[in-house]
Fold this protein.
Amino acid sequence: MSKVYFWNLRTTRKSPHALKMKKLLKQSGLNAIIDPGNLVALKVHFGESGNTGYLNALNLRPIVDFLKKAGAKPYFTDTSTLYVGERGESVSHGLLAARHGYDPNVIGAPVMFADGLRGEYETTIPYDGKYISEAHIGGMFMETDMMVTLNHVKGHGLAGYGGAIKNIGMGCASKKGKMHIHVSTAPHLHPEKCTGCGVCITECAAKALDLDDDGKIIMGGKCTGCGRCFLSCRYGAISIDWKSDVEVFTKRLIEYNKAILDHLKRPAMHINFLMNITPDCDCHGYSDAPVCPDLGVMISSDPVAVDQAALDMINAAPPLYPSRLPDGLSQGDDKFKALAPDTPDSFGLRYAEEIGLGSRNYKLVTI
């Protein structure tokens, strides 16, 4: 049975936020597994432009200070998105992170992107799974001494729920890895929209694309799923079917977690923030009303346990209205399942337990 340490956000004048967070981290044993000089990756989602539900950077400053006192050198990190936008390459992504409060002069740690300038700096690691045989992840994750995941708990349009497992599997994947998780086939081609500019052909690392006699795009070779063609086309001639089989997507995501965590230099720690519990991912350019009250902060070395504990606590909390929740929900009802009924039961946590990623059985230790 895994231990999940929990703080319910209560503070006092003599025990403010920073001291409560320090107590939570110390009780989890985080400082005991850090060596002086360790480079510690703080894996976080900086939030899409227009989103307001992402983790407040100031709430994370006590974690930075705690790690520094233990002798570590922490840095915030994420990877580029597969879709086009401000988070699609590290220059715009870094400026967005700074606008959202992730400025080293404010939070005491720099921002570095694990997959390089354009999301192409990656490491491919083997994994003998049912759905994947390898995982493509941001290269820096294999170089860092330790990783601490900082996870905003919320809903997700495809996975149904986003917590530690979502932040690790999708968040640590390179562009090619994200493509690998989302789809098992090549992108869809729409020759009728093709202008014959040839930019996608230049971008295709596998040399799989070509133009036919009419100057329209065709698949002339074996696609490796890097996603560069999709990102380069400005005319809609190349698309991705994001609504792939949800169960397959979830299990591929979970196997990515296992591959990543098995190859880190040392075990990771996972901190779930049950605050601003919105129905959508922070990748959206907006944040809808929360589905339940703020509940607290959890930390565990087990990503399955900390996600299961978060789900259990959210379902036990009273639903909030007005929100996107269907009318008539009561305490104890599954809020995220009500929002995304097509998602697998347990949001894949049963499969995660089956492959040895962690345990759904946990002991909640409240500080």
Notes: The first strand starts at residue 2 and ends at 7. The mean pLDDT is 93. The CA atoms of residues 44 and 150 lie 5 Å apart. The chain has two domains: 2-181+244-366, 184-239.
